[in-house]
Amino acid sequence: MLDSCFAVVDLETTGNDPLKDHIIELSIVFVKNNEVISSYSTLLSDASDIPAFVTELTSITLEDIKGAPKFNDISNEVYELLENCCFIAHNIEFDLNFLKVAFQNTGIHFQPHLTLDTVDLSKIFFPTLSSYQLGMLSETLNLSLKHAHRAYDDALATAKLFIKILERINQLDKETIIRLYNISKYLETNVSDLLFASLSENNHRDADYTVQSLSIQHPKFNFESNHKITIEDLYKNFIDQNNFKHRQDQLDLIYTIYSALKENKNIALEAYTGLGKTEAILIASIVYTNETKQHVLISTSKKILQDQMYYQSLIRLLESSKLNELPVSMLKGKTNYVDIDTILKLLSFKDDNYEIVMLKMKLLVWLTETITGDLGEISLKGPERLYYDTAHFQINSNDNYFYNRAVEHAKNSRICITNHYFIEECLSELDNKYLIVDEAHQVLNTVERQSITEYKYMDLKFLLSQIGINNKDKMLKEYLEHNDIRAKDFLVRMLTDLNKTIDDVFSSLRIEEIKRAIQQLNHSNYLIDFVLKSIVDTNNYESLYNYLKHFQFKLKDMQKSLTLDNYTIHQDNNYQKTALLVNNNSKDRLFHHLKGLHGQVLISGTLEVNGSFNHLEPWFLDEFDTKIIANDNLFKEVELFIPNDIHDLNDRDSYIEDLVDYLSTYHSIKEDKVIVLFTNYKLLNEVYQFLLDGELFDIPIIKQNKNDTPSKLLLQYNQLQNCILLATESFTEGINLENLNNRTIFLTKLPFPVPTGKGFRHFYKHDLPDAVFMFRQIVGRIKRDDSDRGRVVLFDERLLEKPYRNAFLKYFNEKSLIHGDRTAFIEMLSRL
């Protein structure tokens, strides 16, 4: 197969429906012997209309396709070009279906004998990439893609991607290729033929290093560093490497952190947004630990920021200063590291489900690459994570190979980076005496969430569904295949009863009938014990037995929490949305560890509220020094416009009309991209539907869904020249809006959390700080450096009326604040 001709196809069309829409551009790039050998490309004139969205994306207009051939004119020629080739496309279903219909309309039956999809191949052989859109793949793999969403450029980029995939296949060891070949037979495209050809025609090496028969990377750790460096030298290397200007505020921050470590102090620091806190933390830590041989633990708010701090900041700093041998590491919780026994269990599943097949193949390739075994590298999403967890629950014990390796590495490292969810775990595993908490304004909320185990109805029902009591190809069916079928009726009856009991438990919790819920949980555990006793020591019982034991552990934890009155119930009118929250005491363990530290630094761009750090009191604030590094001109070039002619949100329809009218006014004057942020999905979806129904805008409207990540949305946003993005505040976390000189964000409400009803003190202690931090973060997306300018349009007049006004308006000057009507809004836009 490897010596075949591969035809890489890309189409541009007027829409997504091959029965209604038309091909407006067709390109084919031919690959043979790992080289591009020729190409074919043409515009097509079958379409009588091209939607504005398509023109925005492709730059193809009706004028461009005038005089071009129709598909019928070229169908025989194209068929002959493709006839004896392996058909390849990026998302093959789209291109192949369009071509099949187009050929059918000309009387030709087109069905290629070999097909490959570079989306699937990329997911398998480049498993750590965050996106498999062609533009992102081209950027990541250094493929040339001059004009995205033009057929020839996309086809050429896809051809180069395919060649990269072939090169990656050649690098894999023989054992891994054989496993991949056996699994790939379940895929609809001809991946198995490709792998068989590679096995037959290439001399794949034997695996260099294996654990339990799986090929993995041999561990590599840093060595001890004897290189000496000062703060001044390391800071100079940093600004020279990045072509930054010397900033005295940033250097002062470095010395403040360094002194706190050196003098065994506890200090809470606010340093304004854009100052460069991450690099300040790292420079101070590197110099301190290099001098003293002491170990420093650094924590940040999220795993994505932890990865950025480690790979994009710490490693680059060390490389630029010849400190590559300084031992540094990352550490996360056990569940973040792949379990080899779980992979072996997954591989044993005889399942042709697409998600499971892809998951197995991705994991096998990734194991040959990963040093850490951190599952975050492979980003298991949705069903993939559920299938992995299902396999994990069926094994009897965890091997913890990669986690133990990570702990050992961290113990021998001078600097270890973690995130707020795992501070307690890190402090219990390591012997660090110094802690730096970045993004410290989020630490208490994170610790609160980490100290709670949440049991949801739908999660427990999903776990039960994986046993498969309805004759599905799940654990129960596999068990019965090896045992007396007469056991079936008994097991189905017991498991059906268990399913019903879970309904009863959450029905009782919804109306707070705690005694009845405890009784139902007792009954559930009795049923599970009965099933466990009946299957133990029968044929192939281990998977079902271990899975049920895992499920029973959850039920026993719920029962214990209810009995000891150690719980909170989140109620809902629908019992299926009721949740039981159990305190696991991890917060108490964390604060115990904190008392044993020699020094702590809490730092954030937003840590003070109304001149106070009181919201940090649970973190022993009375033992902390405090310092603010402020910049009165921080938001000098950011205008804050608050309309005074809009309806109250309680008049929902009129409020939405006002919001859309302001958006329409903005678009008619500026014709720029704009982001609209919401505090909830309900209002977001209502505005989105209003925009669709009204057909007021001839530009793309992107909507955030609950499963969308900020990086995915940002990629879509950056690809378009003009669009409206509707998103929640979570979109602004950990992203930078690049290449925009004038940025505009519409904010529908001040970002207060959902009211808890816990009173006035709770509002000022928790809700207000949370809202202030989120607001400053949103504004911080606009103002990243001195040259940035932009505006926030806030549809919430409470900011002007309430006593917490100054907490939000810190760093704004009065000239930047405009409270006016649509006429004032137009005047503001006209000045830009």
Automatic annotation (TrEMBL):
Q: Please indicate which superkingdom the organism of origin belongs to.
A: Bacteria
Query: Is Magnesium included in the keywords of this UniProt record?
Result: no
Query: Which keywords annotate this record?
Result: ATP-binding, Exonuclease, Hydrolase, Nuclease, Nucleotide-binding
| Any one Gene Ontology molecular-function term assigned to this protein's record | DNA-directed DNA polymerase activity
Q: What Pfam families does the record point to?
A: DEAD (PF00270), Helicase_C_2 (PF13307), RNase_T (PF00929)
One Gene Ontology cellular component term attached to this UniProt record is: cytosol
Q: InterPro entries annotated for this entry?
A: ATP-dep_Helicase_C (IPR006555), DEAD/DEAH_box_helicase_dom (IPR011545), DnaQ (IPR006054), Helic_SF1/SF2_ATP-bd_DinG/Rad3 (IPR014013), P-loop_NTPase (IPR027417), Ribonucl_H (IPR013520), RNaseH-like_sf (IPR012337), RNaseH_sf (IPR036397)
GO annotation, biological process = DNA replication proofreading
Show where the Helicase ATP-binding domain sits.
236-497
Which NCBIfam families does this UniProt record tie to the protein?
dnaq
Q: What is this protein called?
A: Exonuclease domain-containing protein
Q: Species name for this entry? A: Nosocomiicoccus massiliensis
